[in-house]
Design a protein that fits this description.
This protein is an all-alpha fold. It has one domain. The chain is built from 5 helices and no strands. It has helices at 2-14, 16-56, 77-88, 92-141, 144-198. α3 (77-88) packs antiparallel against α4 (92-141). The protein starts with a helix and ends with a helix.
Length: 199
Amino acid sequence: MEVISKTLFWVANSLLIPDIIILLILFGRALILAGSFYNQMMTKRRNDALFGAKIKALSPATIDELPPLLPARDNSLFIKYLRDLLTSAKSEAYSDYLLSNLENEADKDLSISRILAKMGPVLGLIGTLIAMSPALVGLSTGDISGMAYNMQVVFATTVVGLVVSAIGLVTLQYKQRWYAKDIYSLEYVARVINDKDEK
């Protein structure tokens, strides 16, 4: 039994360094995500101000007013698919195809936020529990400096894991709402285009 316990202890301790490395990689990725999220938020606000009222008041008679408003350098998913919809939509089937592709790309963009939101706390907890064991051993043997070092690792992994999770969760919530609104807007534009073609 002692051999099994020592093996398990050794395996658990050997996971601390990989856990910290992965946690730092995810933290770096979370910072990159936060920067791209801010850029995406500014683009979204600009597009909503430019197209929100136009799409709301859209009709088969005014559909031709949208293409000139499309920015030339904006590569956001909404503008990309709106441009494709306005210039290439020849049938309802093609419109459905474009919307399905948008949903797939949106889901792909959301996946990193989901990973960060779920893996941050998991890796933080793993680091916390692994580092807690040597800290308790140091406490029992009177090694206060060793215990203090391990407690620093305990708190650091917890905090970094929670920060990673918070960034992932906040970006996920906002992006889900943005993409849902974009899909509804493009569905409406597609219906107006189809109504115009039928007439």
